[in-house]
């Protein structure tokens, strides 16, 4: 989709692939085999990855891992690293962290035209799980997830708060209070929807489009309320998680990040949600990792100084270590006839290709799991010498997730992984 177009809401929903699933019918359901559900995890780095340290020098399934990809050496059969792939219309430097999962500049798009891949997947799942999607970010919020109506999705910044949300049951009194609150919110939405419907008869075409977007946001809110009401009486799963662990502060990545990814794994394993985003944010604080003494943002503008490059390598290798740790846990967990990794796509990427130059080209991208026939390190340069749009890969990921779509946010096609 052209991010500058003013297409009607119905065309937008069709283009992004949001569908309404058929109900399970008793007369035919008994003859259907039940497959494990599909899941999607999107992990993003706000400040990119140094290209010289990220991209392997060789292609193919047996590629030689680059310095920061060494934690993935034993997982080469389970993933694909992409070279020469990016969002062709994004030139927003650091602002690209808001568009990595959509490929659309939020500042230049009409409301809802920058929906992110995770929210299309979450709309497909709905409230089949307690939470349609789960979002967390360390070191500052990224803002990479956008709802179908153009609302930025809230991220949790403390893994222990997320544990409370996902796995700690409310008291009976808190549940009653929450039910009353949800009922009141539902009544308010009924009121404002009625007012908007009456106003719709007396407005011109541009204002009608704005009202359409407003009503879509109301419908999203109604769906959230109805979904939360559905799960109010259902107990949350009990999971093996040590919630007594405390970090020194929000830069204690060595403590916080394993907690974050363990919670993502437990939420996948317990089917608490099927769509997740996790991020390492943009800031210039000193990350508490051995050997790191400089501010993170300053290190990305390294000027090719060996000392800064070494510290940056420690940080970026840590990001890949955390991603590899999650992939390995999923691979070791049985599911159906295979593992959780077979049914879970784990995407790692950034909207910055080279933070030192503020470049949004040739993004550092990895896709693992999902049942794909992975290809190791792939050169995605097209025969005409252009880089492949990342939304082509996102189209393939949505199709793998079960969403019926031929093009996500202006993709020129899909990307073959077989």
Please explain how this structure is put together.
The protein has 418 residues and is of the alpha/beta class. It has two domains: 9-19 and 36-168 and 239-401, Alkaline Phosphatase, subunit A (3-Layer(aba) Sandwich); 169-235. It contains eleven helices and eleven strands. It has helices spanning 9-16, 26-29, 51-54, 117-125, 159-167, 172-200, 205-231, 253-269, 296-300, 306-331, 390-401, and strands spanning 39-45, 79-83, 85-86, 134-138, 275-280, 334-335, 338-339, 344-349, 365-369, 376-379, 388-389. The strands form three sheets. The protein has a seven-stranded mixed sheet with strand order 4-5-1-8-9-2-10, sandwiched between helices. Strands 3-11 form a two-stranded parallel sheet. Strands 6-7 form a two-stranded antiparallel ribbon. Strand 6 and strand 7 (338-339) form a beta hairpin. Helix 5 (159-167) packs parallel to helix 8 and helix 6 (172-200) runs antiparallel to helix 7 (205-231). The radius of gyration is 22 Å and the shape is globular. The protein starts with 8 loop residues before the first helix and ends in a 17-residue tail after the last helix.
